[in-house]
Design a protein that fits this description.
The chain is of the alpha/beta class. The protein has a single domain, classed as Rossmann fold, CATH 3.40.50.300. The chain contains 8 helices and 5 strands. The radius of gyration is 17 Å and the shape is globular. Bound molecules: ligand Z5A. The site of ligand Z5A has 26 residues, from α1, α4, α6 and α8.
Length: about 220
């Protein structure tokens, strides 16, 4: 049965490095939320709106050698459009937003990966996004293993996927540092396990959060 509530919905994000298995886990999280009566709005970043998808194409096209600040601002341009036109209205309706990446990705990729100051990203988050996810699930995976999975999947590598391994090591280290600094919000899931175990652990972390959230805590 659908939950009826005057309360705003929850914002739940899924993060991880290359090949961590986000796409695989997202479907299971959505099913779990719906089974518990949540109306779910799915988003992805960069993208998630018509304008954001156009920005995504520009960002991932290897033909464009974006400098780090341009890359950061394009990520936030896409996010601003998504937050104002999709995320905030959905949360205000009481829907649960399931986000395939959110601002943590900018801290990890543009902050850790590109070396841009975390203070700048935090200021953009404060002004443009005005919100932190209520729950973030971080699929954590050894970089070499993630890159091997992504390569096995095949297809051409996009501009960011073409980065060197040390870039992805810095991305992972930043994600892990953020999780260690905010364990109440960010739950780390061991993504090196078989898919079923990753899904089980991600859904268990989601259930723990929902048990608190639905009680109004
Ligand atoms: N980016 C950024 O820089 N700054 C930002 O602020 C934001 C994003 C928001 C696009 O994001 C790029 O934008 C991304 C970060 C950057 N760049 N990179 N790299 P994206 O999320 O759209 O793209 P992605 O990270 O490359 O996601 P993906 O390709 O969809 O990967 P995934 O969803 O994590 O993996 P998957 O497709 O579910 O799984 C990969 C393969 O592994 C696949 O063949 C699976 O069958 C397999 N797999 C999955 N799980 C397992 C397990 N447990 N065992 C074995 N094999 C598995």
């Amino acid at each position: 049965m659908e939950r009826t509530s005057a309360r705003r919905g929850a914002l739940i994000s899924l993060e991880g490095g290359e090949g961590a298995g986000k796409t695989t886990v997202l479907g299971a999280l959505r099913a779990r939320l719906e089974a518990r009566g949540h109306r779910v709005v799915g988003t992805r970043e960069p993208g998630g709106t018509p304008a954001g998808e156009a920005i995504r194409a520009l960002l991932l096209d290897p033909a464009h050698p974006w400098v780090p600040h341009a890359e950061l601002l394009l990520m936030f341009a896409s996010r601003a459009q998504l937050v104002d036109t999709l995320v905030e209205p959905a949360l205000a309706r009481g829907d649960t937003v399931l986000a395939d990446r959110f601002t943590d990705a900018s801290f990890a990729y543009q902050g850790g990966g590109r070396g841009l100051p975390a203070g700048l990203i935090a200021e953009l988050e404060r002004v443009v996004v005005r919100r932190t996810p209520d729950l973030t699930l971080l699929l954590d995976l050894d970089v070499a293993q993630g890159l091997a999975r992504a390569r096995a999947r095949g297809g051409p590598a996009d501009r960011i996927e073409q980065e060197r391994e040390d870039f992805f090591e810095r991305v992972r280290a930043t994600y892990r540092a953020r999780a260690a600094a905010d364990p109440a919000r960010i739950a780390v899931v061991d993504a090196a396990q078989p898919v079923e175990a990753v899904v089980r652990d991600a859904c268990a972390a989601l259930d723990r959060f929902l048990d608190r959230w639905e009680r109004g805590a």
